[in-house]
Design brief:
The protein has about 400 residues and is an alpha+beta fold. The protein is built from eight helices and 21 strands.
Length: about 400
């Protein structure tokens, strides 16, 4: 059985140990040591530690019954080993995990919200709380209460308790084991069964900052950061706000109002721009209609462009479709892949999709569409032939 030093003293960064078992599988070495400071990956939801054994990087750690397995790429030849963990990584996970306990406790105390899931990611942490919705004022109240507990620097302690003694303390959730139940207590404030690594005092959390709250499967998902992560989060946000305020020549507290004003102006300009474009497409469509050729009561708009975007051509075709008895056979040449669009008025009864299939049997074209409009691409040399083929197929079918 591996002696789990990280439960006794999570602040210990280096220890000496002895390899008791080593296996080689899948180009990796799987090592058991008589004692370890490496926390196993995702045990109780907490990510594992980073670090080295005799200078060899540990790739992974996991539980195997009462043992901890350390996975390394290189062989370690000596039975005597020195284990060393990445302290910054360990401290980060302790801050996030202790912060999770504290925040979950506050949700429960203030709004009877039970934490039904939590996840510690590389950048953010979240908890799922069984509350259907919550207001911004309530979230602010939770955040302030949690940080008051942090600043009060309460003691965080861990101890083992048996099942028959569990009713003597107000545990927030039921343990997953029936014996040797490890309790993490925040000085009379919160009692929670947990096998993770935790801080000694709430003051070491520094700060808890709730980043966002969203609805999730009938509950709420709360994303937050603690300690050094909260500092990093504040640092980049402060930098962005400062740069934005400089761009807008505004004070940082006035940035939101300024941006909202600019956004409203942008929306108004985009609306005006859309209206102007619609007028322009209508004008260009009417110019094309002047060039249309009538055949058996149907006007054919047949033209190849060289300096127009395909998106613009689509808008023009939409206008032409609103005019009675018009068929548009249009293409764009002079580019690497020539484009074409073939469409009919809403009142005409001809299936352009069937026409496309007939033309594609004779010529190498790619594309598709609907019974009203088809579009696609072709090589530079074949655009004229393809447009003419569509014209011939359509006139023969009418």
């Amino acid at each position: 059985m591996t002696e789990k030093i990280y439960l006794e003293n999570p602040y210990l960064r280096q220890i000496s140990g002895r390899i008791v078992e080593k296996k080689y599988m899948n180009n990796k070495y799987y090592i058991k040591i008589n004692k370890t400071i490496f926390y196993p990956n995702l045990a109780g939801g907490q990510p594992g530690d980073k670090g080295t054994i005799n200078g060899v990087q540990v790739l992974d750690t996991y539980e195997d019954g009462n043992d901890i397995v350390h996975v390394v790429k290189e062989n370690i030849h000596s039975d005597k080993v020195e284990l060393s963990i990445d302290w910054d990584n360990r401290l980060d996970y302790m801050q996030q995990h202790s912060g999770q306990h504290l925040l979950s406790s506050v949700f429960y105390k203030l709004y009877s919200g039970e934490t039904i899931g939590f996840y510690i990611g590389k950048e953010y942490v979240y908890i799922d709380v069984d509350i259907p919705e919550i207001s911004e004022d309530e979230i602010e109240k939770i955040e302030q209460f949690a940080n008051k507990i942090i600043y009060s620097n309460f003691l965080i302690k861990t101890y083992i308790i048996e099942k028959d003694k569990l009713d003597q303390i107000p545990v927030r959730k039921e343990p997953s084991v029936n014996s040797n139940i490890r309790i993490v207590e925040i000085d009379g404030i919160d009692f929670s069964p947990c096998c993770g690594t935790h801080l000694r005092r709430t003051g070491e959390l520094g700060i808890i900052k709730i980043r966002k709250v969203e609805k999730y499967k009938g509950n709420i998902r709360v994303e937050f950061v603690c300690g050094n992560r909260a500092l990093k989060d504040y640092t980049w946000k402060n930098k962005y706000i400062r740069e934005i305020s400089n761009l807008l020549s505004s004070k940082d507290k006035d940035v939101l109002n300024k941006v909202e004003k600019l956004y409203t102006q942008k929306e108004e300009l985009e609306k005006k721009n859309r209206n102007l474009k619609e007028e322009l497409y209508k004008y260009k469509g009417e110019e094309l209609l002047k060039e249309s050729k009538p055949i058996n009561g149907v006007g054919y708009v047949f033209k190849k462009f060289s300096n127009i975007e395909f998106k613009e051509l689509n808008h023009i075709v939409s206008y032409l479709n609103s005019v009675e008895n018009i068929i548009a056979i249009l293409g764009i040449g002079g580019i690497e892949t020539n484009r074409f669009i073939i469409s009919r008025s809403n009142d005409l009864n001809i299936n352009m999709k069937s026409i496309f299939k007939s033309v594609s049997k004779k010529l190498d074209i790619k594309g598709g569409g609907s019974p009203q409009t088809v579009q696609g691409g072709c090589s530079k040399d074949e655009l004229d032939l393809i447009l003419q083929s569509f014209f011939d197929e359509i006139t023969n079918s009418l």
